[in-house]
Design brief:
It is built from 5 helices and 14 strands. With 235 residues, it is of the alpha+beta class. Strand 9 (134-144) and strand 10 form a beta hairpin. The longest helix has 11 residues, at 195-205.
Length: 235
């Protein structure tokens, strides 16, 4: 088990990342989603809270060149279920659940992003609170080592997660051209501190030139009441 800051600070461009876990007291489910960018279009974004949901928004509308892969809802809530993703597959999962489909069934209708030559993976997470406990899942949809003719779909399920532990998945192994997709299982990471400490640890570890926005949320496992914090570099 590694510290989140250790993993993030060693990589100048992990891209977009999702962290889900349980705090040390096992009172809260902890969620984080961050975005980074290298181009002016990617960097021209902020996170905006929309009731319990979160959406991306252009910071300067006049500078938007292509909104298709940068404007979406990364977080949507449906009762005791929270969905967090790095693209418009949030809506695919949300609509699928409403129609009786599972997380996995919904994502099997999607593939990686059409941003050749990177073919950015679609990473997704879902958290379900029930009367007795919590479980979460993570997923990555990616090309086969940059070959767009082959789609690979991976799903990871975590039932009865342990106190102070979580999992971290992100889009890229490192900064390069083209960007190499994340591979292997999500990182096992330590979840520590309160909501503010949890978020600060992530934000301060992200590369200062490339980081854009960070969403963090603690959800009380017993009551379902949530606390949310958003940090935007563009303010």
């Amino acid at each position: 088990m590694k510290n989140i800051s250790e993993i993030i600070s060693s990589n100048s461009y992990p891209g977009r990342g999702i962290i889900i876990g349980v705090d040390e007291s096992r009172s809260n489910i902890a969620i984080a989603y961050f975005i980074m960018g290298r181009s002016e279009n990617s960097r021209n974004r902020i996170f905006v809270l929309d009731n319990e949901d979160v959406r991306t928004k252009a910071f300067d509308e006049s500078k938007v060149t292509d909104p298709s892969l940068i404007i979406y809802k990364p977080v949507r809530v449906m009762g005791g279920t929270t969905i967090v993703t790095n693209g418009d597959q949030t809506d695919t999962i949300f609509d699928g659940l409403k129609n009786g489909k599972s997380f996995e069934q919904s994502l099997r209708t999607r593939t990686f992003e059409p941003d050749e030559p990177n073919f950015t993976p679609r990473i997704s997470g879902i958290i379900t609170l029930n009367d007795t406990d919590v479980e979460y899942k993570l997923s990555i949809l990616k090309s086969c080592n940059g070959n767009s003719n082959s789609i690979q779909r991976f799903f990871f399920e975590y039932s009865k997660p342990l106190s102070g532990q979580g999992h971290f998945i992100h889009t890229y192994i490192k900064d390069a051209n083209p960007l190499p997709s994340f591979c292997g299982e999500p990182h096992l990471v330590k979840i520590s501190g309160n909501l503010e400490q949890f978020g600060d640890d992530i934000w301060q570890s992200l590369n200062n030139d490339n980081k854009i926005s960070l969403f963090t949320r603690f959800i009380d496992i017993k009551t379902g009441i949530s606390q949310t914090r958003i940090i935007n570099k563009n303010i």
